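assembly run, all chains below
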Amino acid sequence: MPAHVDAALPPPTIRPRLAATIAGFGVLAAACCLLAPLVGSTSISLGRAFDRTIPFADNVDAQVFFVARLPRVVAAALVGSSMALAGAVFQALLRNPLASPDTLGVSAGATLGAMIVIAFHVDASVFGISAVPVAAFAGSAGALAIVYAMSVARRHGTSTTVLLLAGVALSALLGAAVRFIQILADFTDTFRSVRWMMGALDVGSYNQVVASLVPLAVAFTAIFSMTRVLDLISLGSDAAASRGVDVRRAERIGLVGASLATGAAVSLGGPIPFVGIIVPHIVRLVVGADHRLVLPGSALFGASFLILCDLVTRTAFGPVEPPVGTVTAMIGGPFFLWLLFRRAL
Amino acid sequence: MARRTWLAAALLMAAGVAASAQARRVISIIPATTEMLFAMGAGDRLVAVGSYDKFPSEVDRLPRVGALLDPDVERILRLKPDLVILYGTQDELRAQLDRANVPYYSYTHRGLADITQTMRALGERVGIAREANALAARVEADLGAIRARVAGSARPKTLLVFGREPGTLRNVDASGGQGFLHDMLETAGGADVLADIHQQSVTMSTELILARAPEVIIELRYGRSDAEDPRDARAWDALPSVPAVRNKRVYILHGEEFVVPGPRVAGATERLARVLHPELRW
Amino acid sequence: MALITTESVSFAYRERGPLAVAGVSLDVGRGRILGLLGPNGSGKTTLLKLLSGTLEPSAGRVAFDGTPLTRMARRDIARRIAVVPQETHAAFDFSALEIVMMGRFPHLRAFELEGEADFAIARNALAATGTAPYERRRFSTLSGGEKQRVVIASALAQATDVLLLDEPTASLDLGYQLEIATLLLRLNQDRGVTMIVSTHDLNLAATLCTELALLQEGQLVAHGATHDVLTPDHIRQVYGVIAEVAVHPRAGHLTVVPVARAR
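ok done. output:
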């Protein structure tokens, strides 16, 4: 290979690479979705699970498959997909490969919403969805509104760094509020909130999953409308504007889309760490930097990644499962360090 | 003359020993020990209680000095106690009491048998050994009676749940194979479906509930009116293959006595026995 | 008719704040190279942003071929005016070719992918700036001069009539400065690209530009042919420096040598 060619970078043409990306990651995601419900801590007979002659109420195998495992796999797919996508979008908008769905405080807002409901014992439930995820989503929407207002209030010439710093400050403020309430709350409530913050995908029913579909549909539509624009924005606001991008509008759509995706994901499964940072990076290692490939790749690989992490959670540790956040951190943390080392060398 | 001096000295020593064995200003930040003291008739010796103490109602008149995580050391010292009952894990508080030369009793929360053991030990420390032993004997007798009562019956596989998200089956916290809840369950004639998991508390996944297939599910509710809503029990209908759900043997029991390993433990155990063995006449 | 004109254009960064650019009127003919000169804070960069449509004037207007920029869609402007900024930083591992391909964005429809023609234009632009060998190199690993040439190629791929350059040689060493200047002259001569170059390097301006606009505190102090604007009087007035200006026998264009600070 001639010395001037960087072997790590992919060949230029887009169309075949797009097809390959979607096909490759798509097959992986489909495989995970199909195979994951077959595996678990209990051995079940698939034949029995799908046997229509046995009434569902008596069919343990069917209940394990359809009530315990399948909603969980679906939730993992949705949460992993949205967080990875949101992470990729935030990284592009903020021009920072270390950005994540947590960076601008949307996750912290969701945590605060959940915390308030837990600490004040709001025990209502709507359509089989407890108050906690509803409040989490409301909290994330609140944080999004603040971030959006900050972004709109910026005068021209204020860099994205200011937005990033403001988001970090907001995140810290909301995090402090959460900790403050935790200290004042009952011991059991504090424990409940800590557990919620570590993430859990054992939804047991489809109510929450269905409820999250609307914000996710809006978010995904918004995000996929601007894949190429993200490439240009990642070079700089002026660089994008001089090539014909309406930067203000794009930033707003991107922010709203990524924050909605984050809010829906966090209210469904809690603020699961590392998915939003790691998955886009892994995808970039495979497909390159073009966001028209990175975004679909992240959405698909994010689903696979979290399905696999959740699979490890429910099989590798005996009858008592650790929170899925510990598994994503155990895998994500070392990988992230390796990634940083690789870049530094 | 020498004999009288010797006698006087002996009498003084006895009086001294008797006097030092009495604690008259007791602070208990643990609900279980507070209840024990009241049940032994030593409630009038308490000068302060913990934040979570609720029983008996006399505790409402007493000042509160914090609990496991936030003991108010200043307040404790200002009340000039001669005995502080604290948790074995409260190292900082212990160190501060050592510095202030305040005696303390270190309490650890373990199994059912430890409850009566604590009663006796506490009785010694406070100086009411007679009443304490009587109380302990009563509790042990009551528990023994329950054990005997259910001895002949089959032990249903039971899941003892002490917490979950309202309205759903997320984050079901159940008693594992250790701790006084487990012991209570076994005494009441139930077979703990999580007996092989050596933890006090187990968070159950949906799959685990289905796999263990309990025949009886007992949910303990305490504290505030935790979901007094009777519809809340219907959350279990999501898993109809579980024998307890199918045979409608899901029970919700309210009461503080389930979470305080104190003198009311026998009554609590009997309540468990009643729902586990309705076939026996109670 | 002049390709780009500004009519009494002013801009303030804050409402009722100080004017960064105050009532500047100038025009640039097709195929010309205009230099914007002035000390720091004179409004060069702001004026450049007004000329590219990145900023909207607080007063006055900027027009391209007679049409005010404010009445043109952003994409339309991008098809006519391209900008080469002082520095370009890629947050992600784009290749040089990918950077150049981004210049094709204004010519593509919403979800259209680049085709063979676009790749040909991009490679052509790389060749024109001598950066073809770097096509698959990671942009962030290139040297300063190589990066700048790739960015110029990206602007070329945008296939515009006008190229705006902000301090194109500022952070480059002498060799690259010469390279860029030569490249720009060649592009102007071969392709007829109209250029507006903002620079604080008077000698570069003298090398490159046929006409100059001299700014001081947001106002246009002088505008005209290079030799009319680049005079010791103007330099003293605007920079506070006594300088000698003469045609260099070997280089063939004006050179400026600062001698002393004016008192």
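The mean pLDDT of chain B is 88.

Chains B and C do not touch (no CB pair under 8 Å).

not gonna interpret more than that til we talk
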